[in-house]
Design brief:
The radius of gyration is 19 Å and the shape is globular. 15% of the residues lie in helices and 30% in strands. It starts with a helix and ends in a 16-residue tail after the last strand. The relative contact order is 0.26. The strands form two sheets. Strands 1-10-3-8-5-6 form a six-stranded antiparallel β-sheet. It has a four-stranded antiparallel β-sheet with strand order 2-9-4-7, with no helix packed on it. By secondary structure, the protein is of the alpha+beta class.
Amino acid sequence: MQRISRHLAIMVTMVVGLALGTWPGGIVRAQSATPASGEMQEPEGVIFTPLGIAPGVTLQGATDLTVARAVFAPGAGFPLDVSDPEGALVIMESGTLTFRVEEQGSMISRGAAMQQAMATPMTGPPDLSGILEQVAKGQETTLHAGDVTYIPGNITGEVRNTGQEPASVLLILTDPAGTMMGGATPEATPAS
């Protein structure tokens, strides 16, 4: 029960602190205490583990989401195309990927630092230094297992596996509503 309260406190602190511009001081403080009645408790048999965050993501209105896994062979990659509106929340499972975005900087949530912060006992506001890393526009950076970032659509740049091993990535792809599957609307199966 204390574990989910701690995870939620860290996530709320990060999101609220970033949204209000009070990062890293934050205005939300977590404390170890018996939860009040009605407070969310960790369901038995469920472990909640935040993997990373992608702060400040702006989606343009209604959005189609697709969840996928991509595996990049060593040396494989592709250019990012300014005419492609598809963005992607990138969650590294294994291996490494190097990416570069030309039009804007990006933010990476470093998985190793996130897990270290989650394992450290809290005595005050969480120390989240090292979790979020700002990457300047045009700068090449490498994602490692556990890292999370959002790469928006309509930008130029490149994504490639510069490592010696395959890189496995979970993706949550974002497309303007109605563009998924080439604009086709999936047909529902009639109930019998």
